[in-house]
Design goal:
- The chain is mostly beta strands.
- The protein has a single domain, classed as TonB-dependent receptor, beta-barrel domain (Maltoporin, Chain A), CATH 2.40.170.20.
- It has five helices and 36 strands.
- The protein has a 22-stranded antiparallel beta barrel. Strands 3-9-10-7-8 form a five-stranded mixed beta sheet.
- Strand 22 and strand 23 form a beta hairpin.
- 47% of the residues are buried.
């Protein structure tokens, strides 16, 4: 944590976190640096149990509220620069945000918001529908996590936890308010927001309400071009927690994200409005509701968590120059029940069992007012039901086999069954999978860690992939005589695939870490953790597009031109290849009362195992990111700089896909006094991309935003 050092309490009950199964940090005022073994960030998502992120036998990154504030973020995409192996390849527009982890994206990445699955996946409509101002913590678990989370966790898990009243209020405060406003120049974005929170004196209940509004325009790119965009976003959150007894907690929350924009139908990359990419009024909506219960009596056998949730994501596009309206809506309804039973066999050994089950349903509806039956091509009306059961053991052993230090072994396995069906389809798909995983970490001394893990993961075919129907695109028949209205057009049609198989992965990872306190001065901490990973991903799903040669060449020796399957003019999702992916990830940090530094280095390589070619769309250049800062005595001032260096990228199959390396630097100043008349204020000033660098993220196909001057002011007070 950058703005002020934290010490994590040594005993952190899962019950405090269970209603929001993401990430939490507990602090004790007055403690700094690495004064104890417990002074580390805590992850919950990685094991469904409060665990030190450093000690976890894998790679997980926790981004807390203070670091989000330091980025003065416009979208969550801004913050992901601090997370290794995680990129956004969709371009600068917020309407196209699509994350990837270790080369995998889309349905291969699970996204949670307060424990609720966010299952909306579209070719170009983005996946994040939450404002950074609502987020208290982000956690990213990299690598297969199907042993706990089932289908979709092939590449990893991204979990956000929204703010709560306890995040704002001290024990002696009954009411709190936070007001904030900000501006950034690169897209003329203005924002204003407010949060109110309250709690009873006996902590039996607390409540919070939040709203943020943003408005922005065209985006100035590093190549001096303007990327047309026009956004207005309103985000809101209501949350209530009731604790009728010391062992029982009930939390209910509802959040809403509503974005109205005017941009091209495909907003990703450098796309601008034009033929086949019409300008649209876009309405993106997210509603997420959660009701959770945690029962944690004075019994090591019971720490019960029940979470029911509903999420609805929808994107409606109303063409500006045409009466056509298209819509895609995905609803997810689910319930999770899990429990932790803790056993202590001796002073030197213990076991935590985490076990439970989950049911959820994803249901999609598509709309296109330009078709006869209002169905939308490639967006079938379909549903998928999932059932999963899982169990995980965490063994903790001191002096294993007489060796010095501590050993942690975490085996786990999950069984999943899924069944998908679509309206007007004669077939369905169903399957079941077992997903085992085992990880181990060994600390011969408290400052040294070695770890490894092995996992199998899977991803069920989405209903879009299995049941795609309708028109994919239209092309002119260049060999047919033009009609009175011009060329004759034919349609390429989607067709379903009843034989589509789940994507599967086999992965292993080894790594090590160092964690030292009192390195330069009393209370400081220096740490580094790195790993090498290798994944084989089988049955990768891709789109097989076929068009008849007769549409381009008139010859009796080629198939004639026409629409649909009768002429071979089709698009179908098929299992196309096996991928071999490997890479290195290293995270590091130093924290003291005066100076801090945190960063990461990552590489990723991969080939198509069938052809031997590089994996297009998966790979990234080697990247180094560093965030440096200094606190200027007790003035409340903090100066910082972030730098990102990416090497030249030449792991391509076509010369035109080579990308130059780039160096981008940001600077920021934060004023947050602890005392005096301005002690309730925080001022953020900064400049992103100070050198106005013109660079491209590999798969985005567009120059990134240029120099961006940012400012924000926040007033917060507890009463």
């Amino acid at each position: 944590m950058l703005s002020q050092p934290l010490k994590i309490t040594a005993v952190l009950s899962y019950s405090a976190l269970a209603l929001n199964p993401a990430v939490a940090l507990a602090s004790e005022d007055g403690e700094t640096g690495a004064d104890a073994e417990s002074s580390k960030e805590i992850t919950v998502v990685a094991t469904r149990n409060a665990t030190s992120s450093f000690d976890f036998p894998g790679q997980v990154t926790v981004i807390d509220r203070d670091r989000i504030d330091d980025f003065n973020a416009s979208t969550l995409q801004d913050v992901f620069a601090a997370i290794p192996g995680t990129t956004f390849d969709s371009g600068p527009r917020r309407t196209g945000d699509v994350p990837s982890i270790r080369g995998l994206s889309g349905n291969a990445i699970l996204i949670f918001q307060d424990g609720a699955r966010q299952s909306f996946v579209s070719g170009h409509d983005g996946r994040f529908f939450i404002d950074p101002e609502l987020v208290q913590t982000i956690e990213v678990v990299r690598g297969p996590s199907s042993a706990l989370y089932g289908s979709g966790a092939l590449g990893g898990v991204i979990a956000t936890r929204t703010i709560t009243a306890s995040d704002m209020l001290n024990d002696d405060e009954r009411f709190g308010v936070r007001l904030t406003s900000g501006y950034q120049s690169v897209n003329d974005e203005f924002r204003v927001g407010g949060t109110v929170a309250g709690q009873s004196s006996n902590k039996v209940w607390d409540a919070l309400g939040h709203v943020t509004y943003r408005e922005s325009g065209n985006i100035e790119l590093g190549n001096d071009a303007l990327l047309p965009a026009d956004d207005a976003i309103t985000s809101s959150l209501l949350k209530l927690t009731v604790r009728p007894t010391s062992s029982l907690g009930i939390t209910g929350s509802y959040s809403r994200f509503e974005l109205g924009s005017t941009d091209p139908q495909n907003p990703q990359g450098a796309n601008v409005a034009g033929p086949d990419n019409d300008l649209v009024f876009r309405d993106a909506r997210n509603d997420t509701a959660q009701l959770g219960l945690n029962w944690n009596p004075v019994s090591p056998a019971i720490d019960l968590n029940i979470v029911g949730y509903y999420s609805r994501n929808a994107v409606e596009e109303d063409e500006v120059d045409d009466p056509r309206i298209t819509d895609r809506e995905v609803e997810t309804l689910g319930i999770l029940v899990d429990n932790r039973s803790r056993f202590s066999f001796s002073d030197a050994s213990s076991l935590t069992l985490t076990y439970g089950g989950e049911y959820y349903r994803d249901e999609q509806r598509g709309l296109d007012t330009a078709t006869d039956d209002a169905t939308r091509g490639g967006v079938p009306d379909a549903k998928t039901d999932f059932v999963g059961l899982f169990v995980q053991a965490e063994f903790e052993l001191e002096q294993p086999l007489g060796l010095p230090g501590n050993l942690s072994v975490i085996p786990g396995i999950r069984w999943d069954s899924f069944e998908s069906s679509a309206e007007d389809e004669s077939f369905g798909i169903d399957d079941e999978e077992f997903s085992p995983k085992i990880g181990a970490s060994y600390k011969p001394i408290p400052e040294v860690l070695v770890f490894g893990n092995y996992a199998l993961g899977f991803r069920a075919p989405s209903f879009n992939e299995a049941f795609a129907d309708g028109t994919h695109f239209v092309i002119p028949n260049l060999t047919a005589p033009p009609g009175p209205r011009g060329p004759v057009f034919v349609s390429n049609l989607f067709i379903g695939n009843p034989n589509l198989q789940a994507e599967e992965s086999e992965s292993w990872e080894i790594g090590a870490g160092l964690d030292f306190g009192d390195v330069i001065g009393r209370g400081d901490r220096l740490w580094i953790k790195g790993s090498y990973y290798n994944s084989d991903v089988d049955n990768l799903i891709g789109l097989d597009v076929n068009t008849p040669a007769g549409c381009f060449v008139a010859s009796p020796f080629v198939p004639p031109c026409g629409s649909g399957a009768a002429f071979g003019n089709t698009s179908q999702n098929v299992n196309i290849t096996t991928a071999e992916i490997d890479g290195i990830e290293v995270e590091f940090g130093y924290e003291s009362d005066v100076f801090y530094a945190r960063g990461h280095f990552s590489t990723i390589d991969g080939i198509d195992a069938d052809s031997g070619e590089f994996l297009e769309g998966f790979l990234q250049p080697n990247v180094l990111f560093v965030d440096l800062g200094a606190r200027l005595g007790k003035t409340g001032l903090r100066l910082g700089s972030r730098i990102t260096y990416a090497a030249d990228f030449d792991e391509v199959n076509e010369p035109q896909d080579v990308r130059d390396g780039y160096f981008v630097s940001d600077i920021y100043l934060i004023y947050e006094p602890d005392s005096g008349p301005l002690r309730d204020f925080r001022v953020d000033l900064g400049v992103d991309n100070v050198g106005d660098a013109d660079f491209e993220v590999v798969n985005a196909g567009v120059s990134q935003p240029g120099r961006n001057v940012k400012a924000a002011i926040t007033w917060s007070r507890g009463f």
